[in-house]
Amino acid sequence: MQLTRDEEEALAGKNGEALASAYRILVAIGEATGAQKLVPIKWAHVSGVNYNTIGDAGAQFLDKFSRTAKVAVRTTVNPMGYDRSHPEDISSRFQEKQSSILKSYERMGVTPSFTCTPYEVFSIPQKGTAVSFAESNAAVFSNSLLGLMTNKESALSALASSVTGKAPLSDLRMEEARNPTVGIESAYEFGNELDYGLLGYFTGKVVKDSSVAFGGISRLSTIEAKALSAAIGTSGSCGMFTLGDAKEKISFGKKEAKKVMDELNTAEEGDIITLGSPQLGMNELDLLARLSEGKKFRKRCIIFCSRAIHDQAAKIGLAGKLESSGAEFMCDSCTCLTPYVSNEKYDSVVSNSVKGAYYLNNSNKVKVALKDFRTIVREYVE
Amino acid sequence: MIINNCKKIVGGSGEGPAIVTAQPINFLAMVDPKTGMITDPKHDLHNKSIKGAVLIFPFAVGSSVGAYAIYSLREYGTAPTAVVCVKADITTSSGCAIADIPVVNLPVGAPVIKQGAIARVDADAGKIIVKD
What we know:
- The structure holds two protein chains of two kinds.
- By secondary structure, chain A is α/β, with parallel strands linked by helices.
- Chain A has helices at residues 5-11, 17-33, 51-68, 92-108, 136-145, 155-164, 193-206, 222-235, 254-264, 282-292, 307-315, 318-324, 354-364, 373-380; strands at residues 38-40, 43-46, 74-77, 132-133, 166-168, 182-186, 211-215, 240-243, 248-252, 272-275, 300-305, 327-331, 348-351, 367-370.
- Chain A folds into three domains: 5-173, 2-Layer Sandwich (Aconitase, domain 3); 179-261, no CATH class; 265-380, 2-Layer Sandwich (Aconitase, domain 3).
- Chain A is 43% helix and 15% strand.
- In chain A, strand 13, helix 13 and strand 14 (367-370) form a beta-alpha-beta unit.
- Helices cover 18% and strands 29% of the residues of chain B.
């Protein structure tokens, strides 16, 4: 990869150690993705905010990095570990560690969005705009539905792009990779968002290219597209989908869906219900409120969403409706790796999220009963 | 045995016993940073440690935060001494760039490196030397 003279100097440390590290990252990912050069980006979305994901080493790294690095473009950030207005269950140690991470990000000048669905909160740049999104569901959704151009970035590569305002011109930032040569042909009756999650998880596992085409699916609702994007991002390296056919075909049917269920659906029932991985948006809140109107959840139900979406939902009475059904809101955090859902408190949870199920099983170490929205309401709301 | 024409992703060199898998790795969900052990019972490196090894695997999958997980390995002293990928991904490259772990891609058609063989990766020269 060719660097400009300014970039070479920054890499050599002329503008400080933090920027030198950022360019070291950009050179490494540029080489890995076969880029010829760096290009400007308009927006970085950074992951690595939750203390449970980056740990002490990550917190210390950010503390040092943020002493000299500042964001160069709009930078939004992923959820943290908990909701500061609900610290009840959270140890003071966790709160302190989380607070140190937040301070580092604040010092750098990020927008304190704490959302994994920035595409539902912020204004969207023109189609074709280069961005750098670390959160995988956001990268897949934005490439596929919004026409933004990002690779499936890592927490550190998006951070490097945030402070330099640049990213490698490669892979999904170029037209060629955005035209899939591999397609998934679905001979499957998709009934709900969970089905699309199963398809996405299967896709991530079998497709090694950066993009994939889905044959046999003519349209997707936002709720379905979110579930599909999140699941693709969880299991593999594919970062974009289109609807249509491609040259090479892989089939997805009942057998493949069952295999994903066999892996991730590890319980029949759950002690609590957790919704929001990715965090719920207005569409999902509206659906859930309509389904549960006038009734009550039989089990504790936690809804994870961004504060921006929650506040909007509160203004139009939607949050109140869900709360009167017994649901609780946790803002700024999400299902995955939150101390709210730990194996010390719960053996199993009910969720409709394939992404959530993967992390709940593997990281939170709780068992998961995977059920779609309508089934959850049918079984647990009365 | 010498494998030439390895593409340099992160410069430097490192030596250690080869730990080889054909399965991708999710650094956030599958690796314990305090021990360097692979904790996923479904992974074929389950209960093996990548500490001090030359880790040979196709590419990383899963969470974008995996890059911090690689950095944590370095901080806990449990990092591999070098990483060899079939096709290095963004998580592996960025994490190793910050953790100062050399990374190369294997050339197409490279010979198989045996489990446990002592390997030296010289990323700057683009080669891997495997001791017989």
